[in-house]
C-alpha cells in the first residue's frame, strides 16, 4: 500500500492538483476551491493544514506555492521553535523560557542529529551577517552544547544578553565572534559570551 493511499479521496484530489501546479508558484484558496469544487474556503484551508502537518506538502512563504514531497515522510519529531537569533549586532533578547511554537519535522531531513531530540531546538535567523550560509528568516537547528569546540563552525551564543549565530574562536580567555558576510565583516573580542549550542542544520523554504 502506498503512503498516499492512506488519505481519503478529497485529500488525494487536492494533493494531485497541487502536484500538477507545483511549478506555477502561488495558488490562491479561491483557485483551489473552484478547481476542486469545494463549497467553502475553510474546507480548503483545513485540508491544506492537515497535509502540511503530515508532511505531504510544505508551503513556500516567498512564492505562496506548495512543494509536494515525492516520498511523504512518516518518521517525524516535534522540535520547539524559539524567537530570533541575530545574524547581526542589534537589539533582541536571549531565548525565552517557552518556545513560540513547536514544529513537526522529518527526522530524515535533519542530518547531523541523533535520536535524542530533547537537546535540539530551532531559532529564527534575523538579518544577514551570516550570508551566504544563513539568510534572514531561515530556521536554524541548534544542538545544545555549553562548551565551545574548535570543530564547531557556526555557534549560537548569548552575547551581552542577545542571542547571536556567529563563527566563534577562543584565544587567551576571550571569545572572538566573526560574521560570514564579507560585506558586513564584524570581529568582536569579548569576554561576555555564553555558548548555547552549535548549528547542525539550516532549514530554508518552509
Q: How would you describe what is shown here?
A:
There is one protein chain. This protein is α+β, with helices and mostly antiparallel strands and 206 residues long. It folds into two domains: 3-68, Winged helix-like DNA-binding domain superfamily/Winged helix DNA-binding domain (Arc Repressor Mutant, subunit A), CATH 1.10.10; 76-203, Ribbon (Umud Fragment, subunit A), CATH 2.10.109.10. The chain is 16% helix and 34% strand. The protein has three helices and eleven strands, in the order αααβββββββββββ. The chain has helices spanning 9-20, 29-36, 41-53, and strands at residues 57-59, 66-68, 76-86, 101-106, 120-126, 139-144, 155-159, 162-171, 174-178, 187-190, 193-203. The strands form two sheets. It has a nine-stranded mixed beta sheet with strand order 4-3-5-6-11-7-8-9-10, with no helix packed on it. It has a two-stranded antiparallel sheet with strand order 1-2. The radius of gyration is 20 Å and the shape is elongated. The two termini are 28 Å apart. Mean pLDDT is 79; it is low at 1-5 and 89-94.
Give descriptors for this structure.
alpha+beta; elongated; 9-stranded mixed β-sheet; Arc Repressor Mutant, subunit A; 34% strand; two-stranded antiparallel ribbon; 11 strands; 3 helices; Umud Fragment, subunit A; disordered N terminus; 16% helix; 206 residues
Amino acid at each position: 500500500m502506498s503512503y498516499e493511499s492512506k488519505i481519503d479521496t478529497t485529500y488525494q484530489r487536492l494533493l494531485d492538483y497541487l502536484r500538477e501546479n507545483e511549478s506555477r508558484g502561488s495558488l490562491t484558496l479561491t483557485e483551489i476551491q473552484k478547481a476542486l469544487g469545494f463549497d467553502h474556503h475553510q474546507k480548503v484551508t483545513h485540508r491544506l493544514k492537515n497535509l502540511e502537518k503530515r508532511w505531504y506538502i510544505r508551503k513556500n512563504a516567498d512564492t505562496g506555492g506548495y512543494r509536494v514531497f515525492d516520498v511523504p515522510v512518516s518518521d517525524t519529531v516535534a522540535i520547539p521553535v524559539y524567537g530570533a537569533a541575530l545574524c547581526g549586532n542589534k537589539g533582541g533578547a536571549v531565548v525565552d523560557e517557552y518556545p513560540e511554537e513547536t514544529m513537526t519535522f522529518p527526522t530524515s531531513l535533519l542530518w547531523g542529529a541523533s535520536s535524542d531530540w530533547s537537546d535540539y531546538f530551532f531559532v529564527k535567523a534575523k538579518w544577514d551577517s551570516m550570508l551566504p550560509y544563513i539568510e534572514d528568516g531561515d530556521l536554524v537547528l541548534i544542538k545544545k552544547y555549553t562548551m565551545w569546540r574548535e570543530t564547531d563552525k557556526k555557534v549560537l551564543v548569548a552575547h551581552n544578553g542577545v542571542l547571536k549565530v556567529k563563527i566563534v574562536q577562543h584565544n587567551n580567555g576571550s571569545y572572538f565572534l566573526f560574521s560570514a558576510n564579507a560585506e558586513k565583516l564584524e570581529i568582536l573580542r569579548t569576554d561576555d559570551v555564553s555558548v548555547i549550542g552549535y548549528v547542525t542544520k539550516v532549514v530554508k523554504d518552509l
